[in-house]
Specification:
The complex is a heterodimer.
Chain A lengths: L1 E8 L6 H4 L2 H4 L5 H5 L10 H4 L5 E4 L11 H8 L4 E4 L4 H10 L3 E3 L10 E5 L4 E4 L4 E4 L5 H8 L3 H8 L6
Parallel strand pairs in A: 1-2, 2-3, 3-4
Antiparallel strand pairs in A: 1-5, 5-6, 6-7
Chain B lengths: L4 H10 L8 E5 L2 E5 L3 H10 L11 E4 L9 H17 L2 E3 L6 H7 L8 E5 L12 E4 L2 H10 L1 E5 L3 E7 L8 H12 L8 E5 L1 H5 L2 H9 L8 E3 L4 H10 L17 E6 L6 E3 L7 E3 L10 E5 H4 L2 H11 L9 E5 L3 H9 L2 H8 L2 E2 L20 E4 L15 E4 L2 H10 L11
Helix pairs in contact in B: 2-5, 6-8, 11-13, 11-14
The chains are: A alpha/beta, B alpha/beta.
Bound molecules: iron/sulfur cluster (SF4).
């Protein structure tokens, strides 16, 4: 699975309130509507700047804070292809795997805002096309790959009626 | 090789001899959802083509975050939860019953040795009574509802050894803020925090909940403590369930161990906009304040209200300040009425709101205005957390909040302590 798009860069400790504010998450279960407010408190114009397949690129501890699954769902519905960060907060990480949003853990210091990136998930490499460099990415543990490859946890359960990692 | 509390509970519940970094599928003792997360979980439950929950007596849904409903959309979510609960026969806690993390231990649903998930990040709270409890998202919640199981990566453990005695006017909230400031917001990511030592043993069970509640603010999956006699007594007063307390072995392996001497700790304040931006109070005294909040799953318990009332008794808050009190549960509220605490607050000029999350998460009940400073007993001060990204949130103990709204500026609560 190849992903390609431009980098939108943020710093460390981007929390779930920034990804989608509590002001909106209680209002609706319509994820397309929530998506319009993604990252709004950090960058009010973010939604209008994003093209399909672009990446959110950040520093350490992306997705810290609350357990709201609206965070990855709003990102998916804003047509972001993947989130690339130095590290992720635990609940956010699980939620992304469960909802089918690819996560890429790597050294993001070598990515600048606007850089054109290409990711080869199976091959474990990120190409920074603007800088003409390759950045290695941390592989996902097998359990998570299994859930992602089934298309998320709902699909996994539909397929097996429960957990199945045999 | 010896095991930590986390390794022991996950071994018991999975039937595997599990150590840190193993992945296990384990049986859940209790499963919880709240009104911000249950809607998506019910949708995922239906998408999984499930018909029945695994065991209705082990599941609760709590309407606490946005309660009573301030909006039509929220009312629809609440109705969806009520309908699902009625249809499945699970516990439903409705508006005014309290915050989920107060209710689960208080209503006796969780006891030492349990494995619990909740679709709320502060589910780590029950670690204070020796429960491996952790926050998950809505789809994990749905998987738990359907199967009574979930997969876990067994966490490594970060052990905090807290020696010495806390000085007067310094509370468990100050202690946990200090630790978060010290190790930072991702200092324990993916790990179990384990709090031990004399300072922890000295705390009441209520005060211990505050420390476990905030484990997530350093990235931890759970904030565990051993069950001592105080824990056992507290749990037996709230639950009839069988207790299976576990302790870490002497030779258990820790990823990190840090020792602290708490005997000269000052009150601590987290400054905007991150929880790990912590200073001793003496560095922020005098910062103007417009609103105070005492409540939330961190510090809305009876002991917290007693401490705040002891400072506010017979006094009036500053004329340019507002004070909001949100008792953490109906039981806490009733007891606070009986003890005259609520009268003290109302006489002092406070607004008392429905037991539950109150204004903590910005859905209603006290959204600050642009440029305003709030001092709160909550666990998060992220930009926009209380509903306005242009407001500034400081976090402190109930005593610090009470002392601050009296003066209209951040104030040292030790001035009120003999
Ligand atoms: S009181 Fe605040 S932190 Fe606690 S569960 Fe409610 S919203 Fe979350």
């Amino acid at each position: 699975m190849d992903l390609q798009g431009r980098a939108h860069k943020f710093g460390d400790d981007v929390n779930t309130d920034y990804i989608i504010s509590g002001r909106y998450k209680f209002k609706t279960l319509d994820m397309k509507e929530l998506a319009r407010h993604v990252m709004e408190d950090l960058d009010p114009d973010f939604y209008s700047k994003v093209n399909k397949g672009d990446f959110i690129v950040a520093g350490r501890n992306f997705g810290c804070g609350s357990s709201r699954e609206q965070a990855p769902l709003a990102i998916i519905n804003a047509d972001i292809g993947a989130v690339i960060a130095k590290s992720f907060a635990r609940i956010f990480y699980r939620n992304c795997i469960n909802t089918g949003l690819p996560l890429i853990e790597c050294d993001t210091d070598q990515i600048d805002p606007g850089d054109e990136l290409k990711v080869d998930l199976e091959g474990g490499v990120l190409y920074n096309l603007s800088k003409e460099i390759e950045i290695p990415i941390t592989p996902l543990p097998p359990v998570m790959l299994k859930i992602l490859s089934d298309g998320g946890l709902v699909e996994h359960f539909k397929k097996y009626g429960g957990f199945n990692f045999e | 090789m010896g095991k930590t509390i986390a390794e022991k509970i996950l071994s018991h519940k999975s039937g595997q001899d599990a150590y840190a970094n193993d992945i296990v599928v384990a049986d859940l003792d209790f499963v919880m959802g709240q009104d911000g997360t249950s809607g998506l979980a019910i949708r995922a439950f239906e998408d999984m083509q499930a018909k029945k929950v695994f065991d209705p007596s082990r599941i609760a849904m709590v309407i606490d975050h946005s309660a009573p409903s301030p909006l039509q959309g929220v009312s629809a979510l609440h109705k969806q939860m009520r309908d699902f609960a009625a249809q499945q026969g699970i516990y439903l806690y409705d508006i005014g019953d309290g915050v989920c993390h107060q209710l689960l231990p208080e209503q006796g649903h969780v006891v030492p040795g349990d494995l619990v998930i909740g679709a709320d990040s502060h589910t780590c709270t029950y670690g204070a009574i020796n429960v491996f409890s952790t926050g998950v998202g809505s789809t994990d919640l749905a998987a738990g509802l359907v199967s009574g199981k979930l997969w876990f990566k067994v966490p490594e453990t970060f052990k905090f050894v807290l020696n010495g005695k806390l000085p007067a006017g310094v509370y468990s909230k100050d202690l946990i803020l200090y630790l978060i400031g010290d190790v930072s917001a991702d200092g324990a990511t993916y790990m179990a925090a384990e709090y031990t030592g004399e300072a922890v043993d000295d705390l009441s069970v209520e005060a211990r909940f505050t420390m476990s509640n905030m484990a997530i603010e350093m990235g931890a999956k759970v904030g565990l403590m051993r069950a001592d006699q105080k824990t056992i007594d507290w749990v037996q007063a709230h639950s009839k369930r069988v207790i299976q307390a576990v302790e870490s072995d002497e030779d258990a392996r820790y990823a990190r161990i840090k020792e602290y001497d708490v005997s000269s700790l000052e009150p601590q304040v987290a400054k905007p906009h991150t929880v790990d931006n912590v200073s001793p109070i003496t560095e922020v005294v005098g910062t103007p304040i417009q609103q105070g909040l005492i409540g939330t799953c961190t510090n809305g318990r009876l002991e917290d209200l007693r401490i705040a009332a002891s400072i506010l008794k017979g006094k009036k808050i500053h004329k340019d300040n507002r004070l909001i009190i949100a008792p953490s549960s109906r039981q806490v509220f009733i007891q606070a009425i009986r003890e005259g605490l609520i009268e003290t607050f109302v006489q002092a000029g406070a607004a008392v709101v429905t037991p539950g999350c109150g204004p903590c998460v910005g859905t209603h009940n006290g959204v600050p205005s642009d440029g305003e400073n709030v001092i709160s007993t909550a666990n998060r001060n992220f930009k926009g957390r209380m509903g306005n990204p242009n407001a500034f949130i400081y976090l402190g103990s109930p005593a610090t909040v009470a002392a601050s709204v009296l003066k209209g500026e951040i104030s040292d609560p030790r001035e009120h302590i003999e």
